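QA checklist item 7 of 12: single-chain prediction sanity check.
[x] sequence parsed
[x] length recorded as 504
[x] structure emitted
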Amino acid sequence: MRTLYADHLLERLQFDSHGKLHQRLLRALQQAIIDGVFPPETRLPSTRDLAKELGVSRNTVLNAYDSLLAEGYVTSRTGSGTRVAKTLPEFCLNSALPDGLTAGEQQLPPSLSSRGAALLGYATASPFQWGAFVAGAPDVTAFPHKTLSKIQAKLSQQPDPVQLIYSNEGGCRYLRQALAEYLRVARSIRADADQIIITEGIHQAVDLVSRVLCDQSDPVWIEEPGYWGTRNLLRMNGLDVHAVPVDDQGIIPEISARRPAPKLVFVTPSHQYPLGGHLSLSRRQTLLAMARRHRFWIVEDDYDSEFRFSGSPYPSLQGLEEDAPVLYMGTFSKTLYPALRIGYLVVPKNLQAPLRTAAAELYRGGHLLMQRTVSEFISQGHYAAHIRRMRLLYNQRRKFLLGLIQRYLGEAFMPPYQHDAGLHLVMTLPDKSDDVAIARDALRKGVSVRPLSQYYMHRQKKRGLLLGYACVDEKQIFTAFNLLRQCLINAGLCRLRPANGSDS
């Protein structure tokens, strides 16, 4: 049976008909080495074995190997065989280029579409997704992985074939049923299992509803400030994005000549992202009345409502009225872990059939075995128990960080709105400060914070830093806070005040 290396070389030989066979094989081997198919120090097959697999004479392979050795592509020692060189000769990259092209010309950037270029121009996803003070990252080390693994292992022993094929019914029916029951109690959601579509997170849900419910250039509203991921997806789908200001009562829903009635309004009513307030009852009622009158849909992003640390949880906007014109989005990224890539979309009954069909057509749903595992995790009570444990843990870390800000920076740096929920808080900075520069300085010290100004679509005066406290313990919070405080001192925003380990 041929090896994968031999299959690769045979494919290359089929597309090269110039010269003698050993010359063609030489070129195929050179390109495979340059492309990394044969990584540095990889031992090449013996000449006898490779000749047999390729169906050529051994002399053909010997000639090719000798040329590779002479040109510096490989090394050879008795007893260790022929191996790819650690460092390739400088001329080898140019020798592999098509005729007439220099290395510089070969490395020109690809030609992108205008919307592809726009996406890259607005891209703000960070390569840093763990540690202090990454916003939105849960403590994945505290998750009961063994419990979930046991459930998954049991289900995997004799899986239902339905769980191993594509899904065209909106995801695993067991998970949709478990979610319908959970959301009815926890979030006052008015929906049955058929109204729930399982997604791979909030981004896919935003993409789905904006594609199916809007045409190119349709106006849509987002919060100002708001989640950049939603904003960028809407831009990519060709929509006319209007940033609507928020205050201490949430989004200010006003239609004007400059801000026409939208097709969709994206809101985070339970815990405004990123500032942390919530949408007041009067604003909720106003928004629902406007949606009915002007015939638009409200998209409710309930991204971390499980983590409220004081008072009663705010009920969902979707459950406030019967048949509310609301599509409700949620995710397990904050409550379980982000790499799970399972979210959900609760839709009105008259949208469930078209959106389910569109989801199957666009994304070809899968991961049904893991979805079934999560449904059992919920039904057996592990999900609610885990949320209770994490709520206590996150509240403890939140209080510790707030205490450090209060003691060493002062009231002026405290969050602007209520800070009794979620996985992050916003540390206020003076209006004229450069939060982007401070964030850059902090990153050089190993602390990842996000500048508040990046969450605004339009220029404004408010400055601040998003500090995620969920995925690090108090000792790490204390260390990272001291490093961040030094950045604020460097920026002239505060004076050096003693902070010692007794506060940890």
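[x] summary fact logged: Residues 93-108 have pLDDT under 50 and may be disordered.
[ ] second reviewer sign-off
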